[in-house]
Amino acid sequence: MAFAYPELHLVVAGRQVKGGGRTTEPVLNPATGARLADLPLATEADLDEALAAADVGFSVWRRVSAVDRAKVLKCTADLMRERREYLAFLVTSELGKPLAQARLEVEQAAGMFEWYAEEGKRSYGRIIPSRAEGSRQMSLREPVGPIAAFSPWNAPAITPSRKIGGALAAGCSVIVKPSEETPATALAIAGMLEEAGLPAGVLSMVFGHPAMISGKLLSSPVIRGITFTGSTAIGKLLASQAVQSMKRMTLELGGHAPVIVFDDVDAEKVGVAAATAKYRNAGQVCTSPTRFYVQAGIYERFARAFEETAKAITVGDGFDPATGMGPLANARRVEAMEEFVADARHRGIRLSAGGERCCNAGFFYRPTLLTDFSDDCMAANVEPFGPLAIARPFETFDEAILSANRLPFGLAAYAMTNDVRRAHAVAEAIEAGNVILNHWTVSLPETPFGGVKESGFGSEGGLEGLQAFQNTKFISTLTLQGF
């Protein structure tokens, strides 16, 4: 593709901030391990400037009409679609996912801005019938205030867009810290927002040491809300900081998605589809289907189809059209996969596919399947967040539900069945914020997305995602006689 990876910078108070003696860290191409660019890291002075800008920017942006805010967001979506190939190039360059998958991510990210552009115009209040003559009672929705947003590396276009789009549609200003491993995608989107007419200072984008940035932002009285996507451990830490000043929180944390496959489905077809879904983005998806519980009568056929599909996936550079799965995002994920497999081998669990590094450079690992696993193995308890799936048979409905709900996580869960009564029963019994039956798509711009238990609370996306950045204000007026 005829694009070059850009020079990196911060966005502070509406201006680009480059090196200037700041500490930098390299951004690597996960397919080769080579350096793409050096990323400048924010100083405390940069954060002070961003906070001051967010404070002023909020006072300006909240007074912009919903219709005019929508114009900025819709224009941003249009620009993202016009420059889809460039954005997809950035996603593949710094994350490694196949280019076709990167294009789909860009389209969904653009859809976030488009959805919030329209939904922001429909943020209706209501009139509540009063009990007294001359009384008027109203409920209004108002922006929370300046928002601190934190997004991870595994969806470098979608996750920042979901957070920024919702906050801006509600009338909030935003300071966002995307991942230092995938900065160029988010910076390109920030540039498009500016081009679309977003006033200077309403959005700042910073990078740097996570503890320093989160501590600085969450201790500031300027910040009124936080939205975070990442691990449960970090989410708990941020929540403990945010609660000190009672900041509004939306936390989308870790998961370990179970899949229940009942014996009334086509085992081979479901096995192929399951493997295809599992290894999308090399399994680096918070809703990635991972723990497969398959009814005993079809287990062997399902496992064989899954295994054959996994082994047939071409692993390679995301820019190669033949690639079905790209590299992992960093060396840490490869090391984690090796730890999961070593633990499984130690416990005598069967390695049916993968279980090894591949390719001569970069962070590649083969699609991996562990079968007949036990609940004491590492992979059954810790989210792999990589190209590793585990499968075993079950006999009864209650056994499957017990297994699915065993862990303290509840982000996404899946079930495959052609029995309508069984589908309703499993949907009600599974403890997860997102229950997906007979397909694999969890999140769309217009649907709520969030977890329960230790997978977080609050929702992003849909009407709920807009309301996450809004306060409810009740106004009661009584006409006084004689005044």
From TrEMBL:
Q: Which InterPro entries match?
A: Ald_DH/histidinol_DH, Ald_DH_C, Ald_DH_N, Aldehyde_DH_dom, Aldehyde_DH_Superfamily
Q: Which organism is it from?
A: Xanthobacter dioxanivorans
Record-given protein name: NAD-dependent succinate-semialdehyde dehydrogenase
Q: Where is the Aldehyde dehydrogenase domain?
A: 23-475
One GO term under biological process is: gamma-aminobutyric acid catabolic process
Pfam families from the UniProt entry: Aldedh
List GO molecular-function terms, semicolon-separated: succinate-semialdehyde dehydrogenase (NAD+) activity
Query: Any coiled-coil ranges, and where?
Result: none
Entry keyword set:
Oxidoreductase
Please state which protein family the record places this protein in: Belongs to the aldehyde dehydrogenase family.
Instruction: Cite the source lineage.
Output: Bacteria, Pseudomonadati, Pseudomonadota, Alphaproteobacteria, Hyphomicrobiales
